[in-house]
Amino acid sequence: MAEITREMLVVAHAELGAAKGGTPEDYFPLLWLEHEFSVPREASLNQAAIGPDESGINAFHDDTNLRNLHLICAVWSESRTCFNLPLQQMVDEGIDRIFGDGPPGITPSQFVLQLKSRLLNIQNAVDRVFIHFIFRGDPEAVERSAVHARLREELENRKHLVDRFFTKPVTMVVQVRSATDGRVGAPAHQKATHAYGIRMAGSVAMSGPAGESMRIGFVPLPDLAAIYKEMGNRFFETNIRAFLDEDTHTNRSLNHAFESILLEGSRDPLVFAFDHNGVTIYAEKVEEDGGKLTLTEPRLLNGAQSISAFGRFLASKSADPRLADNAKAQDEVSVICKVITSAKPEFVLGVTLNNNRQNPIRPWNLRANDLIQLELQDKLGAELGIYYERQEKAFIALTPEDLEEMDISENKAVELLKLAQTFLASDGELEKMSRLQEVFEEDALYAGVFGPNRLRADSRHILLAYKIQLRLNRIIREIMERGEKKYFYMRRARNLVWALLIQALLNEPNLPELAEKFGRKPGMETEYSDLLAKLASTRVRFLISASVEEHYADKIEAEKYTFLRTKTIYEDCLKDGRDKWGWIRRKLG
Prior knowledge:
This protein is α/β, with parallel strands linked by helices. It has three domains: 6-191, no CATH class; 195-361, no CATH class; 371-581, no CATH class. It is built from 29 helices and 15 strands.
């Protein structure tokens, strides 16, 4: 197929814009249909949306001879993030509007009405559904995106609605493709609906306030371990953090229990359910048949430690003959299990948080899967090849193969908490730097630190500012060595020194060269360390000293040092820097 050019879009807009409106770029889905599938203009006008559609899809085509349905999201862009919004729209409402039982929205677009009408006519003539994401950039860059991966996973979890509409399991393929050279993401992602059986005898059910459903019963731990063995970490992806260390008290207790039940036979396996807090699972759909539940696209909300520890224990003791001798006991090791379905994502998130109280959870753990955190992971990975460790302990669990697949080239990670402090330091928010729990707990404060503006910052500048904390102790010692009596209070001014060093760096006339030289590697270069020491000595030291002598001598005399952690002294120093050296307040985004 010949490449679609901007000139072609301009021509289409000139021909149709008076009647259809939009911009030239809005005609890309229409031209894609015409060039890729040879759809005549008259038909393509009914099969393509002019401008974005709230369903996330903007074109469709069916080939009943091959029994294929093509749903298309075509965006005239080279950005790897251009599909984030339409993907979210597909997940939130789009697939439900198109394939669900209800009407296609309160005020459905003409495009969705056309699509829904066509689907009803070909309901018995489709075996495969292709969802194409078409743009002008690099498909592999999109495939590596953490945001795209999560949203695509959520989209694929909606496949049971597609199966139900066509009254049979269909094949669903999600594919990213470049309109410039025809490259596709490697590999194209083929999705079958995943369903797993668990035994749950004598379960009871209840409904939630908005139609949510919950079943509670006892499930053999091997049933859950079998799901984990097949799904891998996808089973745990809704968890708010990575696994606890194997050497924690929780895991040591679990291993001791498994050993006494499955190897020594000194403990009755029935006792395990009495001692265990239970697990919670969310599933897209649940079907009950006697004492068995079939879970469609299950995700574990809590209990990952128990299931992973059980799997590790069985693997590590596979050669122990006592394990085979006590095979019956494995099936008798059960846990209380809650299975939730028919719930919205925010409801599931609340359940996840409230069911993970048995191990200490800090506020930043609860933010690890926020969209902005995934977007920052994508940004640092794509622009610097650095892994962003938004989940505690996640980086150490990655294999070299995992890092290569994510296109991560550096062996050190940027950590969530330290990045939060870096952003706060760049904003001069010294008080908040020492109140991180409050920052992560309060939505307004959190949004101020992790706002969309951070995605517009130069990643190299972020890393330059982030790396300062690696040398702060040494820098402060060197300042104090210039006069122990004069600068003794500097040890209390760590965050102030960090914040002012960021401004000193961002105001350096050769910042572009510094960013390129020192802003691409997470490690601390000797030359960069020396530069920071020089800026601390020739800029920051004088600014703090002058402010202390002019405004805070009485507090120093009274040994009250909290002023060193306020935005007031930061602003005093910044004003002095502007007067002395022409500093301009600069932020990271």
